[in-house]
Write a structure and sequence with these properties.
There is one protein chain. The protein is of the alpha+beta class. The chain has one domain: Glutaredoxin (3-Layer(aba) Sandwich). Helices cover 58% and strands 9% of the residues. It has 10 helices and 4 strands. A 4-stranded mixed sheet has the order 2-1-3-4, with helices on both faces. Helix 1 links the parallel strand 1 and strand 2. Helix 2 packs across helix 9, helix 6 crosses helix 7 and helix 7 crosses helix 8.
């Protein structure tokens, strides 16, 4: 029997993704599962598969917007996170930080880097378009900032990020975070993590349904 696998398609510029990632990592650890981190550009996903997001931003429903803010803070409190939303620059330009995620993933260092970037953006409103800000996170994860930032501009890393984004759309995804269990079982959002756990346990027990 193939060991269950978790794929996480993510963009650090989504506060709901920060919630999902912060809850998924301990879940996977508790179950003894590994996460395959797949950096994407969520704006590219929206453009291809979910343009309704832009219409909702342009014409928000006031009552829904007020509840959205409360709901986000309730989840953040439950997760023990500080999330200050929206940031002054929201939506944030994610290109550089997500390219760095691709480079860090190739070295097995994506989790500490991504966690630092999430916290910097959502708790402290740090500028993730600033290479100096990202350099500190790269160094803290034990890698050479100059090397990673140079790789972030390489054709290989650019192509990797684009390929991840296009793959998510091709597999039916429409936002971040999107989680797959055993390649085909898709879940979207922080609040679907109990379903992710249930799917992993079913497969562990030999039931793929």
């Amino acid at each position: 029997m193939t060991r269950p696998r978790i794929e996480l398609f993510f963009d650090v510029t989504s506060p709901w993704t920060w919630l999902g990632v912060s809850n998924l990592v301990p879940l996977a650890l508790r179950l003894g599962e590994e996460i395959t981190w797949r950096p994407i550009l969520v704006g590219g996903v929206f453009n291809a598969a979910n343009q309704s997001v832009y219409a909702a931003r342009a014409n928000p429903v006031p009552a829904k917007e007020a509840y959205y803010a409360k709901d986000l803070l309730d989840w953040a409190r439950l997760a023990g996170l500080t999330i200050r939303f929206p940031s002054p620059d929201h939506p944030v330009n994610a290109v550089l930080v997500m390219r760095c995620c691709v480079a860090m993933a190739a070295r097995g260092k994506i989790q500490p880097f991504a966690f630092a970037a999430f916290d910097a953006l959502w708790a402290h409103w740090r500028d993730l378009t600033d290479p100096a800000v990202l350099a500190a996170f790269i160094s803290a994860a034990g890698e050479d900032p100059d090397m990673i930032l140079a790789e972030a501009s390489s054709a290989e890393v650019k192509a990797g990020l684009r390929a991840n984004t296009e793959e998510l759309v091709a597999r039916g995804g429409f936002g971040s975070p999107t989680i797959f269990v055993d390649e085909t079982d898709m879940f979207f959002g922080n609040d679907r993590l109990p379903l992710v756990e249930a799917a992993l346990l079913r497969r562990r027990n030999g039931d793929a349904a």
